[in-house]
């Protein structure tokens, strides 16, 4: 009888031990799942934060690019205006007018010489 009681006690102890181990495993798994969920939530939050930062950075870069393009156009307009003014001033100089007059005379002389040459040596 006492052997039967001991066997029953041993079976109960084994059952209790298995239940305790099962609860401990379940508890450990629950903690691990909770930890993983926290990690996933933190990673998701970090991803969303970095995505938001990228979007803000991209917007700033686009604004800077637009500003730089406007500045470039403004500077190009100023350069073109300055070139026109410089050309106008140069054309108003006596040396330019004299060179232009000489060039015009030479061009007329060349035309005249070509006409005369055409008379004596016509193209075939």
From TrEMBL:
Residues 1-31 are annotated as: Disordered. Keywords: Coiled coil, Cytoplasm. Residues 22-31 have a biased composition (Polar residues). Its main location: cytoplasm. It is found in: Cytoplasm. Transmembrane segments: none annotated. The keyword Ion transport does not apply. Residues 1-21 have a biased composition (Basic and acidic residues). Belongs to the LZTFL1 family. Regulates ciliary localization of the BBSome complex. Together with the BBSome complex, controls SMO ciliary trafficking and contributes to the sonic hedgehog (SHH) pathway regulation. May play a role in neurite outgrowth. May have tumor suppressor function. PANTHER family: LEUCINE ZIPPER TRANSCRIPTION FACTOR LIKE, LEUCINE ZIPPER TRANSCRIPTION FACTOR-LIKE PROTEIN 1. Self-associates. Interacts with BBS9; the interaction mediates the association of LZTL1 with the BBsome complex and regulates BBSome ciliary trafficking. This is Leucine zipper transcription factor-like protein 1. It comes from Ilyodon furcidens (goldbreast splitfin).
């Amino acid at each position: 009888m006492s052997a039967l009681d001991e066997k029953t006690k041993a079976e109960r102890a084994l059952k209790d031990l298995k239940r305790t181990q099962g609860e401990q495993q379940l508890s450990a798994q629950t903690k691990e799942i909770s930890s993983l969920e926290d990690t996933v939530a933190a990673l998701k939050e970090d991803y969303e934060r970095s995505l938001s930062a990228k979007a803000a950075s991209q917007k700033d870069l686009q604004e800077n690019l637009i500003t730089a393009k406007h500045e470039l156009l403004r500077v190009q307009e100023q350069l073109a205006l300055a070139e026109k003014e410089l050309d106008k001033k140069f054309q108003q100089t006596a040396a330019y007018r004299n060179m232009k007059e000489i060039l015009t005379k030479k061009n007329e002389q060349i035309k005249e010489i070509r006409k005369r040459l055409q008379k004596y040596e016509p193209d075939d």
